[in-house]
Amino acid sequence: MFLYQISGGDKPTQDVISAIRKYAPILNYLHFFAQDGSSAHERFTDNIDGTFDTRSTATSFDTEEFTPVWGDFILKAYGKTVKLDTLVEEQGFAVASEMAIKLLSWAENAGRSLQSRFMDDSTAVNAEQTNGLKKLVALATVSDATRTLNAGGDNGLQVLTGNDNTARKSQQALVEQIKNLIANVGGANCMLMDFALLSRLSTVASDICDITLNEFGVQIGNFLGVPIVPLWNKFDGTPIMPWTETVGTSTDCNSVYAFRSGEKAHLTAMTTKAGLKVYPMQLVTDKYQHLVQFQMGLGTLSSQCIGRLKGIRLG
Fold first, then answer.
1. Contact between 201 and 221 (Cβ < 8 Å)
2. What CA–CA distance (Å, rounded) separates 232 from 112?
3. Exposure string (b/e) for 218-229, b if CB count within 10 Å is 16 or more?
4. What is the mean pLDDT of each run of 10 residues along the chain (315 residues)?
5. Which of 22, 172, 181, 295 lies at a CB distance of 3.0 to 4.6 Å from 75, suitable for a disulfide?
6. CA-only gyration radius of the chain, Å
């Protein structure tokens, strides 16, 4: 299920979720599961040898001893208390409409924040955070080097514009490596990249990659049927995916991330049965306030559901 399907159907909650989804399109592709408790211990889905063996008469097939592998999810709380001063009411403004404006304005900026948190959060940096996609891929790469692919060469792949042979070769190499990334996660249902890279990709591979508007009027890429979420700037104006990654001697690289998601499968997120909740407005001392809160724990339940393609440069 998606977060908006789990959350309450009251108007303030659904309005806030819609505003957040507009600026955090990853919520349209990341599946959640909801259950009671503050943590979960869920079984991996792909840790058994699923091969066919062969045998002859009077021999037996090899046996497969099933040893369960588990993924752990620990809920972390995300939210904000949105306040409106009673002075506004005394000045003649309608509290309900003013609070609704304030709440939606916060939600749009919160969507930008949540998009970056899905990528950047790390329990190693702050124990109150869940691990984001970058951290999950980095941890997975420690035990499985194929979770991170190199776009090309010791110093990355420079993707050039133009139609000469050198430019075309670099463009073809980018397309091939992105196809490899999709296959590397078992068939991605979402990719994420900086918008400048998406713009270049849709230019040099316009026959298989384009940019359209989603239901919220937000630009979303499409590469051979796989949606691409463009990573814009954070709320503070800094990029989510800066062109400052180092590969070899190149210090101007960037990456593409991909994932496969399902409910209690692959890359998935735990939340409570309340989902995202906007609590009813209350008057607390001299402020009207809404508490907005949801709990989330992001993790993986298969070994090949997330991946990164690093070392991409624009020339």
1. yes
2. 8
3. bbbbebeebbbb
4. 96 96 96 94 71 87 74 95 96 96 95 95 96 96 94 94 96 98 96 97 97 96 98 88 96 98 96 97 97 96 95 96
5. 295
6. 23
